[in-house]
Amino acid sequence: MVSIATLGSHCALQVLKGAKDEGFQTVLLCEKKRESLYQRFKFIDEIFLMDSFSELVEDRCQSMLEKSNSVLIPHGTLIAQMNSEQIESIKTPVFGNKHILRWESDRALKDKLMKAANLNVPKSITSPKQINSLVIAKRHGAAGGKGYFLASTEEEYNKKRDHLVKQGLINDDNDLYIQEYSSGVLAYLQFFYSPINNELEFFGVDKRHESDIDGLARIPAENQLASDKISSFNVIANSPLVLRESLLDNVYKMGENFVEASSKLVPPGMNGPFCIEGVYDEEAHFHTFEFSARIVAGTNIFMTGSPYTALIYDEPMSMGRRIAREIKQAETENKLKNILT
Ligand code: AMP
C-alpha cells in the first residue's frame, strides 16, 4: 500500500488526518523550525526533517519517499516555494496533475485556461499607462495576497509599486499583474473532480480574511484619507459560506467547464481538488479572478465536512480525506496511473 506525504504547512494537518482516517501511513516533510508543532499530532507516522522545502528534489528526500512508496499531495506551499521546473522534476508520484500547477503560477497561462473554460474574467491591463479605473496589482505565483495593492491612476500605481520595490518584495513592473477590480461578495468555490468516477463534487465555499484590507472598513473615511499606509491582501484566515441555492447550478457548470477545458489544454486535466475564486456582483454574476489547481487552505474549515459534502457523504468528509479515498479506490482498481503524474 502507498503512503501519503505532504509538506508541513498550508493544509498538511487536514491532508494527513484524512489519509490516516482512510488507513494510510502518513509522512510529513517538515522544516526543522516546525517540528515541535507537528509532533503534537498522533496521525503523523513519520516526520522527515529538512532545513528548507527546496530539499524535496534532493536525493536524500526522494529516496526516502521512494522507500515509503509515497504519493505527494501538492498544496500552496509547494507552489510558493518551488518554481514550475522544480515541481515538474519531482520524481515522487504527485497526486493530480503536476503540469497544471505551471498554469496556476503563470498569469498568461492562467488567463488562457480561465477564458477557455468560459469563465467571466476581469480585464487585465497590460501597461500602467492604461489604468483609468480601479485596478488591483498582484504579484505572480501563490503569494497569498501579500504586497497586492489597489490603484485608480498610473501615478498612484507608480507610487505603490516603488514602495514594494523598496521593501524588496518585487524588482519592477514585470513582477506585477494588473487587473480590473471587481466589487461584490468574494467567494472561493472548492471542487473535487474524480477522473475514475468521471464525477465533479462541489465541496464547499469559503471567504478569506485578508490583512489589512479587511481592517480598512473599521477606519472612518477621514482617518483613511489621512493615512499613507498601503493596504495588502495577505490571507490570515478563512471562514465558511453557504450560497443561495439558486446559484448552485451555475457553480457546477463553472466547475465542469473548467474540468473540460483543462483536459483539452493540460492533459491529463484537472484531476483532484481545485478552487475557482472570484466575486459575485450585484446581479449575482460571478467574476473569476483566479483558480487554484490543487487543494486550497480554505478547505481547512471543513475538517469534518461542509454543508455540501453532507449532501454527498453520510460521514465526515474533508478534502484531505477525499483525496485519500480517491487514492484508495485507484489502488484497489489498479488505476493509480490515472490519478498521478
Ligand atoms: P489572488 O492571489 O488572485 O487570489 O488574490 C488575492 C486577493 O486579492 C483575493 O482574495 C481578493 O481579495 C483580491 N483580488 C484579487 N483579484 C481581484 C479582483 N480582480 N477584484 C477584486 N479583488 C481581487
Instruction: State the end-to-end CA separation.
Output: 18 Å
What ligand molecules are bound, each kind once? adenosine monophosphate
Helicity, as a percent range: 25-40%
Describe the global form. globular
**Which secondary-structure class do the elements indicate?**
alpha+beta
Order of helices and strands: EHEHEHEHHHHEEEHEEEHEHEEHHH
Brief account:
A five-stranded antiparallel β-sheet has the order 11-10-9-12-13. A four-stranded parallel β-sheet has the order 3-2-1-4. The chain has a four-stranded antiparallel β-sheet with strand order 5-8-6-7, with helices on one face.
Task: Describe the protein.
The chain is an alpha+beta fold and 341 residues long. Helix content is 32%, strand content 25%. The protein contains 13 helices and 13 strands. It has helices at 12-21, 35-38, 59-67, 76-81, 84-88, 100-105, 107-116, 154-167, 221-226, 248-265, 309-312, 319-332, 336-339, and strands spanning 3-7, 25-31, 46-50, 70-72, 124-125, 135-139, 149-151, 176-180, 185-194, 199-212, 233-241, 272-280, 286-292. A 5-stranded antiparallel beta sheet has the order 11-10-9-12-13. The protein has a 4-stranded parallel beta sheet with strand order 3-2-1-4. The chain has a 4-stranded antiparallel beta sheet with strand order 5-8-6-7, covered by helices on one side. Helix 1 (12-21) links the parallel strand 1 and strand 2. The longest helix has 18 residues, at 248-265. It is globular, with a radius of gyration of 20 Å. 40% of the residues are buried. The model has no long low-confidence stretch (mean pLDDT 95).
